[in-house]
Specification:
By secondary structure, the chain is of the alpha/beta class. The protein contains five helices and five strands; from the N terminus they run E-E-H-E-H-E-H-H-E-H. It has one domain: STAS domain (Transcription Regulator spoIIAA, 2-Layer Sandwich), CATH 3.30.750. The chain starts with a strand and ends with a helix. The model has no long low-confidence stretch (mean pLDDT about 95).
Length: about 100
Amino acid sequence: MERNGNLIVKIRGEIDHHSADRIRHSVESQFKSSGARNIVFDFARVSFMDSSGIGMVIGRYKELNKIGGRVFAINIGSELSRIFEISGLKKIIPCFASLDEIENS
């Protein structure tokens, strides 16, 4: 889904070595076919994320950074918030409670 120049990526389930590559390909394909400038990952329905998921998010950050776009995270919850903090993702990926919060910032 695209909204106000943001590609909204709603992920469900686990982001691990089995799913991270599939998610990456899907996000890249959706982004290329959209007119979006930024990617917003919605983690509301993510139950687990390992280093493969962290790598997938960092990879999208690096790709968008090259073209002047940004990556945001919403609905990360307490478990993923801890992963974002420990991994250093919070230092490079702005985290918000909702899409409306991003658009109003």
